[in-house]
Amino acid sequence: MGEDAGTGGGRTPWELWSLPGRVRVLVVGVSLAAAGLLAFAARAAPTSHEWVTAGWLAAAALPHLHASHVIERRRRDRTGAPYVDLCSVWIFAGVVVLPLVLELVLVAAIYVHRWVLVNRFDAVRPPHRTVFTAATLALAAAAAAAVLHSTGVHERLAGGARPGWADLAAVVAAAAVQWVVNTGLIGTAIAWTVPVEHPRQLLGSASDNLLEVSQLALGVFVAMALLWWPPAALLMIIPTFALHQCVQLDQLKLAARTDQRTGLLNAIAWHEQAEHALARTRGRIGVLMIDLDWFKRINDTHGHPVGDDVLAEVATVLTRAVRRGDTVGRYGGEEFAVLLPDVEEAEVRAIAERIRVRIRTLRITAPTGEPVQLSATIGAALPPSEPGAGLDEMIRAADEALYAGKKAGRDRVAVAGW
Fold first, then answer.
1. What is the pLDDT at residue 7?
2. I want to staple 6 with a disulfide (CB 3.0 to 4.6 A). Which of 22, 190, 400, 418 is the partner?
Protein backbone atom coordinates (compact mmCIF):
# COMPACT_ATOMS: atom_id res chain seq x y z
CA MET A 1 0.00 0.00 0.00
CA GLY A 2 1.03 3.60 -0.51
CA GLU A 3 1.37 6.74 1.52
CA ASP A 4 -2.35 7.50 1.80
CA ALA A 5 -2.45 5.16 4.71
CA GLY A 6 -4.52 7.12 7.15
CA THR A 7 -1.52 8.10 9.27
CA GLY A 8 -2.62 11.63 9.44
CA GLY A 9 -2.81 14.71 7.28
CA GLY A 10 -1.32 17.99 8.34
CA ARG A 11 0.99 20.67 7.04
CA THR A 12 4.18 20.23 9.04
CA PRO A 13 6.15 17.22 10.30
CA TRP A 14 5.26 18.19 13.84
CA GLU A 15 1.59 17.48 13.25
CA LEU A 16 2.54 13.88 13.88
CA TRP A 17 1.97 14.81 17.52
CA SER A 18 -1.63 15.79 16.81
CA LEU A 19 -2.50 12.17 15.93
CA PRO A 20 -4.29 9.94 18.45
CA GLY A 21 -1.87 8.64 21.07
CA ARG A 22 -1.84 5.01 20.00
CA VAL A 23 -1.31 6.03 16.35
CA ARG A 24 1.70 8.13 17.39
CA VAL A 25 3.06 5.13 19.25
CA LEU A 26 2.52 2.92 16.18
CA VAL A 27 4.11 5.36 13.73
CA VAL A 28 7.12 6.12 15.92
CA GLY A 29 7.48 2.50 17.06
CA VAL A 30 7.42 1.07 13.54
CA SER A 31 9.88 3.71 12.32
CA LEU A 32 12.29 3.04 15.21
CA ALA A 33 11.97 -0.72 14.71
CA ALA A 34 12.94 -0.33 11.05
CA ALA A 35 15.91 1.87 11.97
CA GLY A 36 17.01 -0.64 14.61
CA LEU A 37 16.70 -3.48 12.13
CA LEU A 38 18.90 -1.60 9.67
CA ALA A 39 21.54 -1.05 12.36
CA PHE A 40 21.43 -4.74 13.27
CA ALA A 41 21.66 -5.89 9.65
CA ALA A 42 24.58 -3.55 8.95
CA ARG A 43 26.81 -5.65 11.22
CA ALA A 44 27.21 -8.14 8.36
CA ALA A 45 29.13 -6.55 5.49
CA PRO A 46 27.85 -7.50 1.99
CA THR A 47 30.23 -9.19 -0.42
CA SER A 48 31.37 -7.49 -3.61
CA HIS A 49 29.12 -9.79 -5.63
CA GLU A 50 26.11 -8.75 -3.51
CA TRP A 51 26.95 -5.10 -4.07
CA VAL A 52 27.02 -5.71 -7.83
CA THR A 53 23.62 -7.46 -7.68
CA ALA A 54 22.22 -4.55 -5.69
CA GLY A 55 23.62 -2.17 -8.31
CA TRP A 56 21.82 -4.01 -11.11
CA LEU A 57 18.56 -3.94 -9.14
CA ALA A 58 18.91 -0.22 -8.43
CA ALA A 59 19.71 0.37 -12.10
CA ALA A 60 16.35 -1.18 -12.98
CA ALA A 61 14.24 0.20 -10.12
CA LEU A 62 15.25 3.86 -9.98
CA PRO A 63 14.78 4.66 -13.70
CA HIS A 64 11.32 3.10 -13.56
CA LEU A 65 10.40 5.05 -10.42
CA HIS A 66 11.80 8.27 -11.90
CA ALA A 67 9.97 7.84 -15.20
CA SER A 68 6.67 7.10 -13.44
CA HIS A 69 6.80 9.68 -10.63
CA VAL A 70 4.37 12.06 -12.36
CA ILE A 71 1.88 9.22 -12.83
CA GLU A 72 2.37 8.21 -9.20
CA ARG A 73 1.62 11.74 -8.00
CA ARG A 74 -1.57 11.82 -10.05
CA ARG A 75 -2.63 8.39 -8.77
CA ARG A 76 -2.10 9.42 -5.18
CA ASP A 77 -3.90 12.75 -5.61
CA ARG A 78 -6.97 11.04 -7.08
CA THR A 79 -7.54 8.74 -4.14
CA GLY A 80 -8.65 9.44 -0.62
CA ALA A 81 -7.93 5.89 0.45
CA PRO A 82 -4.89 3.63 0.62
CA TYR A 83 -3.56 2.77 -2.79
CA VAL A 84 -1.05 0.25 -4.06
CA ASP A 85 2.35 1.86 -4.41
CA LEU A 86 3.91 0.27 -7.49
CA CYS A 87 7.36 -0.56 -6.15
CA SER A 88 6.83 -4.03 -4.65
CA VAL A 89 8.24 -5.63 -7.79
CA TRP A 90 11.70 -4.24 -6.93
CA ILE A 91 11.40 -4.65 -3.17
CA PHE A 92 10.42 -8.33 -3.38
CA ALA A 93 13.14 -9.01 -5.94
CA GLY A 94 15.55 -7.64 -3.35
CA VAL A 95 14.07 -9.93 -0.71
CA VAL A 96 14.98 -12.94 -2.86
CA VAL A 97 18.49 -11.97 -3.94
CA LEU A 98 19.96 -9.41 -1.52
CA PRO A 99 21.27 -9.62 2.03
CA LEU A 100 19.01 -7.87 4.53
CA VAL A 101 21.12 -4.73 4.90
CA LEU A 102 21.11 -4.04 1.16
CA GLU A 103 17.38 -4.79 0.96
CA LEU A 104 16.70 -2.21 3.66
CA VAL A 105 18.95 0.31 1.93
CA LEU A 106 16.98 -0.32 -1.28
CA VAL A 107 13.68 0.41 0.48
CA ALA A 108 15.15 3.59 1.95
CA ALA A 109 16.49 4.70 -1.44
CA ILE A 110 13.12 4.12 -3.13
CA TYR A 111 11.25 6.20 -0.56
CA VAL A 112 13.82 8.98 -0.44
CA HIS A 113 13.38 9.17 -4.20
CA ARG A 114 9.59 9.12 -3.75
CA TRP A 115 9.77 11.93 -1.19
CA VAL A 116 12.01 14.15 -3.32
CA LEU A 117 9.97 13.81 -6.52
CA VAL A 118 6.43 13.28 -5.23
CA ASN A 119 5.62 13.92 -1.60
CA ARG A 120 7.65 16.99 -0.68
CA PHE A 121 5.46 19.10 -2.93
CA ASP A 122 2.34 18.11 -1.02
CA ALA A 123 1.69 20.18 2.10
CA VAL A 124 -0.96 17.81 3.45
CA ARG A 125 1.34 14.77 3.45
CA PRO A 126 4.11 15.48 5.97
CA PRO A 127 7.35 13.48 6.10
CA HIS A 128 6.23 11.10 8.84
CA ARG A 129 3.77 9.48 6.44
CA THR A 130 6.49 8.60 3.95
CA VAL A 131 8.77 7.43 6.77
CA PHE A 132 6.01 5.23 8.18
CA THR A 133 5.23 3.70 4.77
CA ALA A 134 8.91 2.97 4.14
CA ALA A 135 9.28 1.48 7.61
CA THR A 136 6.29 -0.83 7.18
CA LEU A 137 7.72 -2.11 3.89
CA ALA A 138 11.15 -2.55 5.50
CA LEU A 139 9.68 -4.70 8.27
CA ALA A 140 7.54 -6.61 5.77
CA ALA A 141 10.55 -7.27 3.55
CA ALA A 142 12.57 -8.41 6.56
CA ALA A 143 9.81 -10.84 7.56
CA ALA A 144 9.68 -12.22 4.00
CA ALA A 145 13.48 -12.58 3.93
CA ALA A 146 13.34 -14.48 7.22
CA VAL A 147 11.06 -17.05 5.57
CA LEU A 148 13.54 -17.57 2.74
CA HIS A 149 16.51 -17.85 5.10
CA SER A 150 14.73 -20.25 7.45
CA THR A 151 13.90 -22.57 4.56
CA GLY A 152 17.38 -22.31 3.04
CA VAL A 153 16.03 -20.98 -0.26
CA HIS A 154 18.10 -17.80 -0.16
CA GLU A 155 21.37 -19.70 0.25
CA ARG A 156 20.49 -22.30 -2.42
CA LEU A 157 19.61 -19.65 -4.98
CA ALA A 158 22.70 -17.62 -4.16
CA GLY A 159 24.78 -20.76 -4.63
CA GLY A 160 23.42 -21.28 -8.14
CA ALA A 161 21.19 -24.28 -7.36
CA ARG A 162 18.27 -24.95 -9.67
CA PRO A 163 15.07 -24.15 -7.70
CA GLY A 164 12.40 -26.82 -7.27
CA TRP A 165 8.79 -26.93 -6.21
CA ALA A 166 9.65 -26.64 -2.51
CA ASP A 167 11.63 -23.49 -3.25
CA LEU A 168 8.69 -22.04 -5.19
CA ALA A 169 6.39 -22.77 -2.25
CA ALA A 170 8.82 -20.96 0.08
CA VAL A 171 8.95 -17.95 -2.23
CA VAL A 172 5.13 -17.83 -2.35
CA ALA A 173 5.04 -18.06 1.45
CA ALA A 174 7.54 -15.20 1.70
CA ALA A 175 5.42 -13.06 -0.62
CA ALA A 176 2.35 -13.81 1.49
CA VAL A 177 4.21 -12.84 4.67
CA GLN A 178 5.33 -9.56 3.09
CA TRP A 179 1.74 -8.76 2.11
CA VAL A 180 0.34 -9.69 5.54
CA VAL A 181 2.85 -7.64 7.53
CA ASN A 182 2.60 -4.58 5.30
CA THR A 183 -1.20 -4.70 5.08
CA GLY A 184 -1.54 -5.40 8.78
CA LEU A 185 0.54 -2.39 9.83
CA ILE A 186 -1.09 -0.03 7.34
CA GLY A 187 -4.57 -1.36 8.17
CA THR A 188 -3.97 -0.86 11.89
CA ALA A 189 -2.95 2.75 11.29
CA ILE A 190 -6.10 3.34 9.27
CA ALA A 191 -8.38 1.64 11.79
CA TRP A 192 -6.95 3.74 14.63
CA THR A 193 -7.10 7.01 12.69
CA VAL A 194 -10.32 7.12 10.66
CA PRO A 195 -13.66 5.30 10.99
CA VAL A 196 -14.38 2.54 8.46
CA GLU A 197 -17.74 0.94 7.73
CA HIS A 198 -16.39 -2.58 7.38
CA PRO A 199 -13.08 -4.31 8.22
CA ARG A 200 -12.77 -5.31 4.53
CA GLN A 201 -11.93 -1.68 3.75
CA LEU A 202 -8.71 -2.07 5.71
CA LEU A 203 -7.50 -4.68 3.21
CA GLY A 204 -8.01 -2.58 0.10
CA SER A 205 -10.10 -3.50 -2.91
CA ALA A 206 -9.89 -6.82 -4.73
CA SER A 207 -8.33 -5.11 -7.76
CA ASP A 208 -5.69 -3.44 -5.57
CA ASN A 209 -4.75 -6.75 -3.99
CA LEU A 210 -4.58 -8.42 -7.40
CA LEU A 211 -2.26 -5.62 -8.49
CA GLU A 212 -0.05 -6.20 -5.45
CA VAL A 213 0.07 -9.96 -6.10
CA SER A 214 1.00 -9.25 -9.72
CA GLN A 215 3.89 -7.08 -8.58
CA LEU A 216 5.16 -9.75 -6.21
CA ALA A 217 5.05 -12.28 -9.05
CA LEU A 218 6.99 -9.93 -11.33
CA GLY A 219 9.49 -9.49 -8.52
CA VAL A 220 10.25 -13.22 -8.67
CA PHE A 221 11.13 -12.94 -12.36
CA VAL A 222 13.34 -9.91 -11.69
CA ALA A 223 15.09 -11.93 -8.98
CA MET A 224 15.69 -14.86 -11.36
CA ALA A 225 17.19 -12.48 -13.91
CA LEU A 226 19.48 -10.96 -11.26
CA LEU A 227 20.68 -14.41 -10.24
CA TRP A 228 21.44 -15.79 -13.70
CA TRP A 229 21.46 -12.93 -16.23
CA PRO A 230 21.51 -9.51 -14.46
CA PRO A 231 21.26 -7.25 -17.55
CA ALA A 232 17.88 -8.86 -18.34
CA ALA A 233 16.47 -7.24 -15.18
CA LEU A 234 16.65 -3.91 -17.01
CA LEU A 235 14.01 -5.16 -19.43
CA MET A 236 11.48 -5.20 -16.57
CA ILE A 237 11.46 -1.39 -16.68
CA ILE A 238 9.23 -1.61 -19.76
CA PRO A 239 6.37 -3.81 -18.39
CA THR A 240 6.41 -2.08 -14.99
CA PHE A 241 6.10 1.34 -16.60
CA ALA A 242 3.35 0.00 -18.86
CA LEU A 243 1.58 -1.33 -15.75
CA HIS A 244 1.76 2.16 -14.25
CA GLN A 245 0.20 3.62 -17.39
CA CYS A 246 -2.60 1.05 -17.45
CA VAL A 247 -3.45 1.58 -13.79
CA GLN A 248 -3.62 5.33 -14.32
CA LEU A 249 -5.83 4.86 -17.38
CA ASP A 250 -8.25 2.71 -15.38
CA GLN A 251 -8.37 5.35 -12.64
CA LEU A 252 -9.03 8.11 -15.16
CA LYS A 253 -11.86 6.10 -16.69
CA LEU A 254 -13.35 5.49 -13.25
CA ALA A 255 -13.02 9.16 -12.28
CA ALA A 256 -14.76 10.19 -15.49
CA ARG A 257 -17.75 7.98 -14.62
CA THR A 258 -17.98 8.62 -10.89
CA ASP A 259 -19.55 11.41 -8.87
CA GLN A 260 -16.91 12.72 -6.46
CA ARG A 261 -19.18 13.36 -3.46
CA THR A 262 -21.14 10.12 -3.43
CA GLY A 263 -19.08 7.54 -5.30
CA LEU A 264 -22.11 6.77 -7.49
CA LEU A 265 -22.21 6.92 -11.26
CA ASN A 266 -22.50 10.46 -12.56
CA ALA A 267 -25.42 11.45 -14.80
CA ILE A 268 -23.64 10.70 -18.09
CA ALA A 269 -22.34 7.30 -16.94
CA TRP A 270 -25.71 6.38 -15.41
CA HIS A 271 -27.54 7.24 -18.65
CA GLU A 272 -25.06 5.22 -20.70
CA GLN A 273 -25.33 2.18 -18.44
CA ALA A 274 -29.11 2.50 -18.33
CA GLU A 275 -29.26 2.48 -22.14
CA HIS A 276 -27.33 -0.80 -22.20
CA ALA A 277 -29.67 -2.30 -19.60
CA LEU A 278 -32.69 -1.17 -21.58
CA ALA A 279 -31.35 -2.89 -24.70
CA ARG A 280 -30.71 -6.13 -22.79
CA THR A 281 -34.12 -6.27 -21.15
CA ARG A 282 -36.12 -5.19 -24.20
CA GLY A 283 -37.89 -2.42 -22.36
CA ARG A 284 -38.87 -4.28 -19.19
CA ILE A 285 -37.40 -1.72 -16.81
CA GLY A 286 -38.50 0.66 -14.11
CA VAL A 287 -37.00 4.06 -13.37
CA LEU A 288 -36.93 5.95 -10.06
CA MET A 289 -36.11 9.63 -9.79
CA ILE A 290 -35.38 10.58 -6.17
CA ASP A 291 -35.19 14.15 -4.92
CA LEU A 292 -34.29 15.14 -1.34
CA ASP A 293 -36.89 17.46 0.17
CA TRP A 294 -35.80 20.92 1.31
CA PHE A 295 -32.15 20.17 0.65
CA LYS A 296 -31.29 23.86 0.17
CA ARG A 297 -32.60 24.48 3.66
CA ILE A 298 -30.15 21.87 5.02
CA ASN A 299 -27.24 23.63 3.32
CA ASP A 300 -28.37 27.05 4.49
CA THR A 301 -28.97 25.91 8.07
CA HIS A 302 -26.09 23.53 8.70
CA GLY A 303 -23.58 24.38 5.98
CA HIS A 304 -22.43 22.68 2.79
CA PRO A 305 -20.14 20.13 4.52
CA VAL A 306 -23.22 18.73 6.29
CA GLY A 307 -25.03 18.74 2.96
CA ASP A 308 -22.20 16.72 1.44
CA ASP A 309 -22.45 14.24 4.33
CA VAL A 310 -26.19 13.92 3.67
CA LEU A 311 -25.58 13.15 -0.02
CA ALA A 312 -23.00 10.49 0.87
CA GLU A 313 -25.34 8.86 3.44
CA VAL A 314 -28.23 8.84 1.00
CA ALA A 315 -25.99 7.26 -1.65
CA THR A 316 -25.21 4.47 0.82
CA VAL A 317 -28.92 3.98 1.54
CA LEU A 318 -29.70 3.72 -2.16
CA THR A 319 -27.02 1.15 -2.94
CA ARG A 320 -28.18 -1.02 -0.05
CA ALA A 321 -31.91 -0.69 -0.72
CA VAL A 322 -31.87 -1.75 -4.38
CA ARG A 323 -31.29 -5.19 -5.82
CA ARG A 324 -28.02 -6.52 -7.16
CA GLY A 325 -27.80 -5.47 -10.79
CA ASP A 326 -29.80 -2.26 -10.37
CA THR A 327 -28.04 0.93 -11.50
CA VAL A 328 -27.81 3.87 -9.10
CA GLY A 329 -26.50 7.31 -10.03
CA ARG A 330 -26.44 10.90 -8.90
CA TYR A 331 -28.42 12.75 -11.51
CA GLY A 332 -27.52 16.24 -10.35
CA GLY A 333 -27.71 18.38 -7.21
CA GLU A 334 -29.82 16.51 -4.68
CA GLU A 335 -31.46 14.27 -7.29
CA PHE A 336 -30.65 10.58 -7.75
CA ALA A 337 -31.72 8.05 -10.35
CA VAL A 338 -32.22 4.30 -10.14
CA LEU A 339 -32.71 1.92 -13.05
CA LEU A 340 -34.49 -1.34 -12.25
CA PRO A 341 -34.08 -3.95 -15.02
CA ASP A 342 -36.28 -7.04 -15.33
CA VAL A 343 -38.78 -5.78 -12.80
CA GLU A 344 -42.52 -6.00 -12.24
CA GLU A 345 -44.81 -3.16 -11.20
CA ALA A 346 -45.21 -4.36 -7.61
CA GLU A 347 -41.46 -4.62 -7.15
CA VAL A 348 -40.90 -1.07 -8.44
CA ARG A 349 -43.37 0.24 -5.88
CA ALA A 350 -41.83 -1.83 -3.09
CA ILE A 351 -38.26 -0.70 -3.83
CA ALA A 352 -39.33 2.94 -4.08
CA GLU A 353 -41.16 2.78 -0.76
CA ARG A 354 -38.22 1.01 0.89
CA ILE A 355 -35.88 3.79 -0.25
CA ARG A 356 -38.26 6.50 0.95
CA VAL A 357 -38.60 4.95 4.41
CA ARG A 358 -34.86 4.40 4.84
CA ILE A 359 -34.06 7.98 3.89
CA ARG A 360 -36.76 9.18 6.28
CA THR A 361 -35.21 7.19 9.14
CA LEU A 362 -31.61 8.27 8.49
CA ARG A 363 -30.04 9.77 11.59
CA ILE A 364 -27.51 12.49 10.76
CA THR A 365 -26.24 14.98 13.31
CA ALA A 366 -24.76 18.40 12.50
CA PRO A 367 -21.53 19.50 14.24
CA THR A 368 -23.69 21.60 16.58
CA GLY A 369 -25.40 18.41 17.77
CA GLU A 370 -28.65 19.30 16.07
CA PRO A 371 -30.34 16.44 14.18
CA VAL A 372 -30.76 16.84 10.43
CA GLN A 373 -34.27 15.96 9.31
CA LEU A 374 -34.45 14.19 5.96
CA SER A 375 -37.13 13.06 3.59
CA ALA A 376 -37.36 12.37 -0.12
CA THR A 377 -39.94 12.41 -2.84
CA ILE A 378 -39.71 9.65 -5.43
CA GLY A 379 -41.13 9.56 -8.92
CA ALA A 380 -41.49 6.06 -10.36
CA ALA A 381 -41.97 5.06 -13.98
CA LEU A 382 -43.30 1.51 -14.13
CA PRO A 383 -42.46 -0.95 -16.89
CA PRO A 384 -44.76 -0.02 -19.79
CA SER A 385 -47.46 -2.53 -20.67
CA GLU A 386 -46.45 -2.17 -24.32
CA PRO A 387 -42.64 -2.45 -24.66
CA GLY A 388 -41.11 0.26 -26.81
CA ALA A 389 -40.78 3.27 -24.52
CA GLY A 390 -37.24 4.66 -24.62
CA LEU A 391 -35.13 5.59 -21.64
CA ASP A 392 -35.68 9.32 -22.11
CA GLU A 393 -39.44 8.82 -22.13
CA MET A 394 -39.25 6.82 -18.91
CA ILE A 395 -37.05 9.43 -17.23
CA ARG A 396 -39.48 12.13 -18.30
CA ALA A 397 -42.39 10.16 -16.91
CA ALA A 398 -40.59 9.55 -13.60
CA ASP A 399 -39.70 13.26 -13.41
CA GLU A 400 -43.30 14.29 -13.98
CA ALA A 401 -44.40 11.90 -11.24
CA LEU A 402 -41.70 13.32 -8.97
CA TYR A 403 -42.93 16.89 -9.40
CA ALA A 404 -46.50 15.75 -8.88
CA GLY A 405 -45.37 14.19 -5.60
CA LYS A 406 -43.70 17.45 -4.62
CA LYS A 407 -46.89 19.39 -5.25
CA ALA A 408 -48.89 16.84 -3.26
CA GLY A 409 -46.81 17.45 -0.13
CA ARG A 410 -43.43 15.69 -0.52
CA ASP A 411 -42.11 12.63 1.36
CA ARG A 412 -44.00 10.19 -0.83
CA VAL A 413 -43.79 7.87 -3.81
CA ALA A 414 -45.62 9.05 -6.90
CA VAL A 415 -46.12 6.68 -9.81
CA ALA A 416 -46.34 7.78 -13.41
CA GLY A 417 -49.27 6.64 -15.49
CA TRP A 418 -48.86 5.47 -19.05
1. 44
2. 190
